[in-house]
Amino acid sequence: MYWCKIARTEKEFEAIAKLNYQTFVEEIPQYEPDPSGMRVDPFHHENVYVIVLKDQELAGMVAFRAIRPFSLDLKLGPVENLLPKDALQGLLCEVRLMAVDKAHRNGRVFYYLARALSDYAYENGYGAAVISGTIREQKLYNQLGFEPFAETVGTGDALFVPMVLTRERFDRSVAARFKQKRYSFYPGPVQQSKQIQQAFLEKPISHRSHEFKVMLERVKNRLLTMSEATHVHLLAGSGTLANEAMIAQLHVLGEKGLILTNGAFGERLEKQAARWGLSYKSQAYEWGTSFDMAAIEKQLATGEYSWLLMTHGETSTGMLNKLEEIAKLCKKYNVLLCADCVSSFGALPFSMDGVYLATGVSGKAIGTMSGLAFVFSNSEIVTGDNIPAYLDIGLTASHMIPFTMSSQLVQSLEYALKAYEKGARYTLLRERMKFIEAEVEKHQIPLLADDPYPMIFTWHEKTFPYLAEDARMSGFDLHYKSDYLVERGLIQVSCIQPDFEDAWSKFTDWMDNYWAYHAE
């Protein structure tokens, strides 16, 4: 297995120094021989090393740095004076070294290096990389996307061509044609199956047409069957929009409520409530900690609260909060329950018959394109004059379609909902959850929350500090770059993507190798 990472350990740096010696002393007579058999770059401590490994063995590396002056600056003067304008759109870095072990000199390794360099540099704000490319490997450099921008420099057997690589040049290169397949473990957006993609190739129809109304009614009926709610209101927008519309109804009530939080999305609900100027008390718990049912009941028993707002599936921690238990308490004390079910709806079967309002979306567990938001209710919602029209779900009552809605989005949602016939989608997600649980147990990965659900798993990055970054360089996109995850050093894996089985099989092979490599 070939895979990529950033070099960080002394063992890796030693292997790089040996490869440098073989390449730049023994093969290319650029430096004098040394009895150590190692060549450490003068700018070693300023370099970033992207390496390709074959299982546990170093196969190749590329080193770049961004501190000026570059070696090419010293040979040519400031390179900006010679570079084409399109190479001056971001930060500049210099590729100081590129070497591949003789045993692994195949196009695949060079393409891995070029792809990893392009991705890593681009994501870190670099617009272009310059290099002194040995004249004997011009064809290879051209295949990787490098293009000359100045005359040849050097003497004798050590002649080099100043070359530049940009993201656009790489995308036009031979190497880019051999793109590494990427596998997503994001909790959204979801890659689209061929059937769902077909919906976006259909001719759009007017949201005022009878055909659209009939299709929308079919979709609503399916959503109501799944949720066991009485009404569902569809909006064109995200889950945040659905939650805004839900909270707008609490604004209409004008009474005091209780907000429960134990993660980023519960905290977001509270911030939304504060923006609306709602009267409420917040009961906050540590991230990944279960709600204290006795403490909640004690609060509700005071008779002080008319509504309770919470998140069901807390995406930030992978925790499923106890909706049904809280619904029973709310019913006991005549409190209206409002729940953010954006991540949980479609991930597992549950009933919304005990809620006042709840939200969901098309683009999470259901598996179609983002863009449709749902607000479920068990009471008839009337239109209100003191909330913005677009957030007024009362306007969608009585089969009205007050605002533009994409027929292709609705069609794709209908296709996606067919997967829930006889509970097939739920069964699939449960089976995927078992795959993840087995890997978690195998490697003794401590999860952040003890109550996961078939949508997402969360653990602390400290288990392996750079695992997510290294996985990304090898084609596996874990969820770790959202601000709320970065702040707490969390990594997430979701099981809702359509190619999960294939992706998980390849990722676990990679992870077994990764663990073995770091165990040495």
Please estimate the helix content. Answer: 25-40%
Terminus-to-terminus distance: 17 Å
Shape: elongated
CATH topology of the largest domain: Aspartate Aminotransferase, domain 2
Beta content comes to: 15-25%
Reading off the top of the CATH hierarchy, the class of the largest domain is best stated as Alpha Beta
Structural class: alpha/beta
**Biggest sheet layout:** 8 strands, mixed
Q: Any key phrases for this structure?
A:
single chain, 520 residues, alpha/beta, Aminopeptidase, Aspartate Aminotransferase, domain 2, Aspartate Aminotransferase, domain 1, 3 domains, eight-stranded mixed β-sheet, seven-stranded mixed β-sheet, 17 helices, 36% helix, 21% strand, elongated, alanine-glyoxylate transaminase activity, transferase, acyltransferase activity, transferring groups other than amino-acyl groups, PyrdxlP-dep_Trfase_small, aminotransferase
What does this molecule look like?
This protein is an alpha/beta fold and 520 residues long. The protein has three domains: 2-180, Gcn5-related N-acetyltransferase (GNAT) (Aminopeptidase), CATH 3.40.630; 194-420, 3-Layer(aba) Sandwich (Aspartate Aminotransferase, domain 2), CATH 3.40.640.10; 423-519, Alpha-Beta Complex (Aspartate Aminotransferase, domain 1), CATH 3.90.1150. The protein has helices at residues 10-27, 71-76, 107-123, 138-144, 167-171, 174-177, 194-199, 210-227, 239-253, 264-275, 293-300, 323-332, 407-417, 424-442, 467-473, 483-488, 500-519, and strands at 2-6, 48-54, 57-65, 91-100, 126-134, 147-148, 153-155, 158-166, 183-184, 231-236, 257-261, 280-284, 307-311, 313-314, 319-320, 336-340, 357-361, 372-377, 456-460, 476-477, 490-494. Strands 1, 2, 3, 4, 5, 6, 7 and 8 form an eight-stranded mixed sheet that branches. The longest helix is centred in the C-terminal third of the chain and has 20 residues, at 500-519.
